[in-house]
Amino acid sequence: MAGVMPNIISLPYGKSPPLHLQTTSWRHLLKLMARLPGTRIEPTAQATQRNDELYLRTVIQFVRPHYNSQTWRTIVWFTIDQDGERSNSRRSSNPGAHVEKLPHSYSQMKLPALLRDGADSPLSKTYTIPSTYSVPHPVLPISFPNLTLYLQAALDESRRYFNDSTSGMRKFAKMLEYCYPDEFDSGAGTRERSRMTGLFKKVIGRGGKSSKKGRGGNEETYDLVTPFVPDEWG
Asked: Which residues are CB-contacts of 234 (< 8 A; sequence separation ≥ 6)?
């Protein structure tokens, strides 16, 4: 489906299905979103009536169509943090314990088909990004370039736990190594990853509050990043 990526992607609060985007790979997702400064995710007008800061919850999923396929796709699912989960997830002393659980908002809706099985399988790997001191949930609205920094910072943090078998935090890095070994091996070095995390810390919580808005030729099409269509996977 061809078309121009919208400048504003509205995210509702409550029982609505999650926003979902797909790309051919994790690297493709980050590179493309970084090239879309004019696009941002923001809460709907109804959601902003809550008069609270609204935080973005993100679930990463790698999927493939069948057991013999060597090609994985990257799907990211977005919802707004719900009142009932804030005290548990955002201030947890053990964030690694939450990476296997979908955010609370998913219990309020009919789950998308690709998330209904819950546990990982040979066809699907899922990681819920937890809130940590270094990488807290970002405040909405957030631009695509800042969201790119957040996603990369979450991966960088997971990499730091890669050899710690006692922590669930390493799951994201393990998923990337399994599904996209070339991207995992060719990832940025320690110094570069530290720089990316530092950049994220400078922008987190400020998304959309600056008077400057992304401008320019935001002409990327939906054949590069598209709302995911479950029917493609039977």
From this structure: 65
> Model pTM?
0.80
Please give the Cα distance from 124 to 72 (Å, whole number).
Answer: 9
The beta strands (E) that lie in the chain are given as 8-11, 19-23, 40-43, 56-63, 73-80, 124-128, 142-143, 226-227
Beta carbons within 10 angstroms of residue 91's beta carbon:
10
> How distant, in Å, are the alpha carbons of 5, 25, 210, 234 from that of 32?
11, 11, 22, 27
CA torsion sign for 221, 186, 61, 7 is negative
- CA quadruple 47, 50, 146, 100: dihedral sign: negative
Residue 212 has pLDDT above 90, yes or no: no
Inter-residue contact 114 to 233 (CB < 8 Å): yes
Between CA 80 and CA 229 the distance in angstroms is: 21
Give the tens place of pLDDT for each residue, 40-79: 999 999 988 887 889 999 999 999 999 999 999 999 999 9
Q: How far apart are CA 137 and CA 182, in angstroms?
A: 28
The Cβ-side half-sphere exposure at 49, using a 13 Å CA radius, reads: 7
Maximal CA-CA distance, the chain:
50
Using CA atoms of 2, 65, 36, 194 in order, give the dihedral in degrees to the nearest 10: -170
Report pLDDT digits (tens) over 161-208: 999 999 999 999 999 999 999 987 644 454 555 555 555 555 554 444
Closest CA to 35 of 221, 231, 227, 223: 221
